[in-house]
Amino acid sequence: MREDQIFLLPGPTPVPPQSLRSMSSPMINHRGPAFKEILEEVTPQIQKIMETKNDVFILTASGTGGMEAAVANFTSPGDKVLVASIGSFGERFKKICERYGTVVDFIDFPWGTAIDPEVIREKLNKDKKREIKAIFLQHNETSTGVINDLKAVSEARGEHPALLIVDAVSGLAAGELKTDAWNLDVVISGSQKAFMIPPGLAMISVSQRAWEVAQKSTNPVFYFDLKQYKEFLSKGQTPWTPAISLFYALKESLQLMLEEGLDNILKRHRLHRDMVRAGVKAIGLELLASDEVASPAVTAVIAPEGIQVNAIRSLMQNKYNVALAGGQGKLKNKIFRIGHLGYVKPTDIFAALASLELVLTELGLKVDLGVGVRAAQRVLLERSGENAHTSQ
Amino acid sequence: MREDQIFLLPGPTPVPPQSLRSMSSPMINHRGPAFKEILEEVTPQIQKIMETKNDVFILTASGTGGMEAAVANFTSPGDKVLVASIGSFGERFKKICERYGTVVDFIDFPWGTAIDPEVIREKLNKDKKREIKAIFLQHNETSTGVINDLKAVSEARGEHPALLIVDAVSGLAAGELKTDAWNLDVVISGSQKAFMIPPGLAMISVSQRAWEVAQKSTNPVFYFDLKQYKEFLSKGQTPWTPAISLFYALKESLQLMLEEGLDNILKRHRLHRDMVRAGVKAIGLELLASDEVASPAVTAVIAPEGIQVNAIRSLMQNKYNVALAGGQGKLKNKIFRIGHLGYVKPTDIFAALASLELVLTELGLKVDLGVGVRAAQRVLLERSGENAHTSQ
């Protein structure tokens, strides 16, 4: 396998060369001034990306570790919680919440659709005794390529005291997320997504209200004990030895992100989404999610009748060196997913669409060669026109 | 600060150039054949290093995460456990065990000494009802530079059914550890020690007896759920997205380790220990641990009367670019520690001892310049002679 894949997974995502190179730097003392400098540089930068003044911590773990940290720190056994699910990662929140002995009201929206905020509003309105302690949900559901309207969910919560706990592992810096403006109590993210670094770090923000809940939590928690993270952050340290090399990469990638600016990053993700969707539609394939809820991070494509998902993915990989993802959970063998998250460029999308056209042709589908690429080019052209216009 | 420090911490430890470079490789799919190949290559190699046929898993977490995984998977609330402590990491095991609701019998041996196996034997003999479920202990206590005699502790356990759960984070591949021969049920290690890679991975081995206990554990555990790790390993995967770059480095470092051979690695660690100890003693400083229990990973040196530990460490760092560790817990400001663990070479030790002689002189101590270096040289010379002799 060539190392220089066209790497269109919804995580891990491509890592910029300067971030990759930074990881070859020698070790430093994680209790010394050099590490402190990095930690104190990147932490406020992540706050900026999360649009928050809340505390933000960086855990050495994958995104799932961040999800568990949220459940472990901000619930107690017996707590009533809502888990609003639209896919595989919603189910993961349910599993973790159950593992920690909460009483889960699982709202299972159809896969490929977004959360209906009215359902949440109704659940909370009926909860006259204010027994619901937390609402768990995804910002972006990686398994289906759907983005939730967090602002609307937050408004639906209204004055209800339940914490809003958001898995934004694949959504942060791909789709809009305003932690403070939308009163999101806990936001979890992961390094191997829009942060453009390898997997191994999880980020988590904590509101004041969430801290009050954490004080009373009776769960056993040690490695993910966020109170320890807070105490050590005040010394410029993490409580346990951090994945130092990944911090080197984080520093480089955040530099790139801040140079580009959050608005431009979000615009870029919308552009790439629209290019992919236009291209795939023009090829004649069906998308799982409707345009209204389409994820700026990943697009789920329904495999055409009679063609195996694995056949498409293998040919894409083996003939053209393009990495695509398959389906998860109940969508396994039914969809393939094109990631357009993080350090992806328009030319990657052209290349992937051109390859996809050939692969589908080889697999017996009638494809008008170049049709997908042309549709993506048109989106790019229009969007450049708009930008030229608005900048006048 | 120069990047090329003489890096003598007991973790993180120096990383070989080829392992550092490997981390600049682009991302791969953690659910694809390339990652599977790495995971299936490194797992049996770690079994070799651990001298075990037991299951071995690699977690994306620091060593503390591995310690928590052991407590969470192999105890249940209310279980009676022994924690045999000889320092700061023993105290950490106690904290984690308490957090998980076990009833801890904490045996607090004096810091700087090793576990007395007779105390364990007596505790277990008195436990006629076989209520003690597990014994937690360190292989090597990083905070004091003392190595425990695991074989003797295992013999002291005898037929008692308590699990033997060993934190070998800093000890594995520095000091002898025979998982199977000594019936160690759970062995935990970490990447940033003798494995010579950056922090971020923890390794854990699990015996059949430990699995039986895990089946009945009632703790909430998700990210560290080893049953999930077992299920996914059979597919060549980890349950959650792994720190891919660190696996690249692990593959390189294990290659180096197996080329050197475990016996030679252990011999090298003993040599470096003896060089450091001889040098420090010749300078006129006092060591915390006696020769009989001295750690092959790290040496704790008692700060001379009237000289601040921080003054020594700062001058060593700022003038000579030599990184040393301070004391932890009740040894803070009383000792400094010289790590000689992992990718350290004799010339690093000469350089560190020469610098230490100058720093102590500057701080007002009367030091016969060169005396420490000479003592270390003599150890090296003798040892080379022995090797030359035995190889005839």
UniProtKB/TrEMBL annotation, chains A, B:
This protein's UniProt keywords: Aminotransferase, Pyridoxal phosphate, Transferase
Q: Where does substrate bind?
A: 337
Q: Which cofactor does it need?
A: pyridoxal 5'-phosphate
Q: Locate the Aminotransferase class V domain: which residues?
A: 27-328
Record flagged with keyword Transferase: yes
The keyword DNA repair is assigned to this record: no
Q: Which InterPro entries match?
A: Aminotrans_V_dom (IPR000192), Aminotrans_V_PyrdxlP_BS (IPR020578), PyrdxlP-dep_Trfase (IPR015424), PyrdxlP-dep_Trfase_major (IPR015421), PyrdxlP-dep_Trfase_small (IPR015422), SP_NH2Trfase/AEP_transaminase (IPR024169)
| Example GO molecular function | L-serine-pyruvate transaminase activity
SUPFAM superfamilies, alphabetized: PLP-dependent transferases
Q: Which residues carry this modification: N6-(pyridoxal phosphate)lysine?
A: 193
The organism sits in which domain of life? Bacteria
The biological processes this protein is annotated with in GO are:
glycine biosynthetic process, by transamination of glyoxylate
Family stated for the protein in its record: Belongs to the class-V pyridoxal-phosphate-dependent aminotransferase family.
Name under which the protein is recorded: Class V aminotransferase
Its source organism is Calderihabitans maritimus
